Amino acid sequence: MTPKVRIAIEEADVIVGYGTYIKLIQNIIRKDAEIISGTMGKEVERAKIAVKKANENNKVVMVSSGDPGVYGMAGIVLEVAAQEKTTIPIDILPGITAASAASAILGAPLISDFAVISLSDLLTPLGKIEKRLELASQADMSIVLYNPQSQGRIEPLIKAYEIMTRYIQPDTPVGIVRQADRVGQTAKITTLKNLLNEEIDMVTTIVIGNTATKLVNGKMVTVRGYDITK
Ligand SMILES: C[S@@+](CC[C@H](N)C(=O)[O-])C[C@H]1O[C@@H](n2cnc3c(N)ncnc32)[C@H](O)[C@@H]1O
Predict the structure, then answer these.
(1) Which residue has its alpha carbon closest to ligand 1 atom 12?
(2) For position 41, what pLDDT does the model report?
(3) Cα of 16 from ligand 1 centre, angstroms
C-alpha cells in the first residue's frame, strides 16, 4: 500500500472488506473502528453497506488487495453510490497491483508493452478471455495472468496454455509469484513449456515474457533495446 492508503485506513471510522484482506491490515485499524468483513462473492452487499455507512456520516474505507481499480472494488462502489444517488465524495486510492509487485520480485519483465488478463470466468465469458489471450500472444506482448487457477477451476489455465503455446516459443521465460509481498512469498522463474507443472493457485500471478525477455543474473528481464556497451 502507499502512505496515503495507510493514513486513510488509520483514520477510518468504518472498514469494509473481504475478511482475508482485513486480517492483513488488522494492526493499523483504529481500535474503536467498526469492522465489517465478508466473504468472497458478496461484493455488491459490501459496496452497499459501505455507501450506507458513508451516508450516515462515517469515514469509510472499502478495502481491496493491490489496486482497487484493477479487478478491485472501485468500480462497484462508484456504481452503487450513483444508484443510491449519494453526494458523498469518494476517493479511489491507488495501490500496488500484483503485476507490479510480481514484476519487481522477478526482475523487470514488464519494462515494455504488456497485457494483463484475468483467467476468472465468473464475470467474463471464457470465449472472451480466450480471444484476449490469443491477440496478446500474437502481438508479442509480455502477458500477466491474474486469477490463474483455483480448486476445481483449472480449465482456463489449460486453455490459456494451449493458446499461448501456439504463438509463444516454449523456452520463453515465465515467472510465477505467490503471495507477493506477503508472509509466505515464493517466486520461481521457469519456461512456458513447464508452466503447467508448477504450483499455481489463486494467490499466484504469472508473468509470461515476450521475445525480448531473457535471464540476466537470474532475474527475468525484458530487454528494451538500449545499447549498454557505449
Ligand atoms: C481479483 S484479483 C485482485 C487484484 C488486485 N486488485 C491487484 O491490483 O493486485 C486477484 C488476483 O490478483 C493476483 N494477486 C493479488 N494479490 C497477490 C499477491 N499478493 N501475490 C500474487 N498474486 C496476487 C492473483 O492472481 C489473484 O488471483
Answers:
(1) 146
(2) 73
(3) 18
Residue located nearest, by CA, to atom 3 of ligand 1: 71
CA distance 177 to 96: 15
Q: Is 40 in the pocket of ligand 1 (CB under 6 A)?
A: no
What is the CATH number assigned to the segment(s) 3-83?
Answer: 3.40.1010.10
C-alpha to C-alpha distance for 116 and 143, rounded to whole angstroms: 6
Cell of 184: 509466505
CA–centroid distance, 95 to ligand 1, in Å, is 11
- pLDDT tens for residues 103-119? 999 999 999 999 999 99
d(CA 56, CA 29): 20
Q: Domain extents for the chain?
A: 3-83, 98-222
Q: What is the pLDDT of residues 150-206, one digit of tens each?
A: 877 889 999 999 999 999 999 999 999 999 999 999 999 999 999 999 999 999 999
Q: What class has domain 98-222?
A: alpha beta
Q: How much distance in Å is there from the Cα of 44 to the middle of ligand 1? A: 19
